[in-house]
């Protein structure tokens, strides 16, 4: 219905003294039931007969002082049509004395407090509404807006309010937008901010700032291609955002172009950054633009029916989202570890499990995988999925990944660990079967798994591959010929993969350990000969856990950091052949 007050009434602090048609008000208030009386009063108010409408309601309140509905409407009409905010507040306070759970009264008081810029009071009144009825339309959104705009120390609280608002109304694009800003600029939760900016764009594809915010955020997170894409979309929606400096800073080409054309341009860009200083000013300006004050202080909606009355500025209630527990488990990501049945792979699985990652574990020994799955479920309440295949068999690898259930397909971190050494012999005495096993497992197996998993990472523009190489991939040692060659191949592949994948926002890393105990490595190398496998008795090598900790560290750096290569040995080992074997007890 809009705000249809007369010009005179709109300028007055108190209702006008003279009714437009004195005849009706007292007579009607005596004869009409409260509901039709309220309807009649709004009809008068909307047709410009402000004083008549207010008089009718005022008389009715005098005659039925205990009737909360009448008094609430009188207060509402005083505020909206009579601009008599003090009078409205007094009526609401009287109402709350005998009806202390009247949520609409508190909501209106909150809006009046906002009007007088008394934000702590407004916050308290809205909170009261939420305490009485947590499903009251928009109440958490309003709380979020006040905490966001007016209370500097309540940014965390503002984020909580917006989250609650979004649980009730997931389609509130503005709540998504403001929450994204808080997550990005105050709470350091960048990927969560990305998610909410994306929601804004989904709900409001022409949002004037969300694309630009995403562009800046992706730029900071190191995803230059996504930043460029969103910058272009931002400029399409809002050409004002286009500046030569931003053009230059965001510009990014996909690598389909010949590399010699791309490289000089990328190198030239390194020193550039988007105009973040200007962004900050823009941000402040646009926050002022988007300030809800106008909207909140212009009482407007027409009550659809006298009971229950809608509050000033409230919108029709949309379907509420189901409430989920605040303590809901955060999905830290899916980690695929090959060769998780023993040694370094098992120790790595243990650390990721302890830290709440979902695990996809592989190996040939099914009973060991089953036991790990049962323990991690029991101990950490963790979802674990098992894949049981020989990495040397390309068909088995392909089938295993093709048949994965939907929820296990999006691997965030791939740890290519499965590997082995077989034998130790000079080249002229080498065992062909040993050679084939090492080449097929350490090189081809790593390639088959990577080939199955990497396309999904490229599609999603997200992922991290960590290869377990060896010091044997950095230097050769006598009789280690083919094993060293396979690990040199892993070293080369790590570097080559990085060149292919970095532009898809995928990190590729490697850890290259020296001797590692708590593994079956030596036993496998010497065909199960336990005596020959006793190679660590006279010095302290690394433990499987030492290596697992480094892998975990590499995997948990912020998204802009890629640790490319870690070469690690026990303190008593200086190289593949220089080992202090004077005994492990002396340290
Ligand atoms: N231990 C060391 O001194 C040392 C030093 C440097 C680097 N490394 C490297 O570290 C990685 C892990 O070795 P580790 O020391 O932990 O040895 P480990 O205890 O023997 O573990 C090797 C893992 O690889 C899996 N694996 C081996 N061949 C496989 C195949 N064909 N298909 C599927 N899985 C297979 C094994 O599982 P299943 O047998 O159940 O299939 C096992 O889980 C290897 O790449 C190794 O080269 C080890």
Question: Which properties best describe this structure?
Answer:
single chain, 587 residues, alpha/beta, Rossmann fold, seven-stranded parallel sheet, two-stranded parallel sheet, 25 helices, 9 strands, 53% helix, disordered N terminus, binds NADP nicotinamide-adenine-dinucleotide phosphate
Q: Identify the strand order in the major beta sheet.
A: 3-2-1-4-5-6-9
CATH class of one domain equals Alpha Beta
Estimated structural class: alpha/beta
Pick out the low-confidence regions.
1-26, 254-274, 286-328
CATH topology tier name of one domain: Rossmann fold
CATH architecture of one domain: 3-Layer(aba) Sandwich
What's the tally of helices? Answer: 25
Which range does the strand content fall in?
5-15%
Ends distance: 85 Å
Describe the biggest sheet?
7 strands, parallel
Structural commentary:
- The chain contains 25 helices and nine strands.
- It has a domain of 235 residues: 3-Layer(aba) Sandwich (Rossmann fold), CATH 3.40.50.
- The radius of gyration is 34 Å and the shape is elongated.
- By secondary structure, it is of the alpha/beta class.
- The longest helix is centred in the C-terminal third of the chain and has 29 residues.
- Strands 3-2-1-4-5-6-9 form a seven-stranded parallel sheet, sandwiched between helices. A two-stranded parallel sheet has the order 7-8.
- Helix 12 packs antiparallel against helix 13.
- It binds NADP nicotinamide-adenine-dinucleotide phosphate.
- The site of NADP nicotinamide-adenine-dinucleotide phosphate has 29 residues, from helix 19, helix 22 and helix 24.
- The site of NADP nicotinamide-adenine-dinucleotide phosphate (NAP) has 29 residues, from helix 19, helix 22 and helix 24.
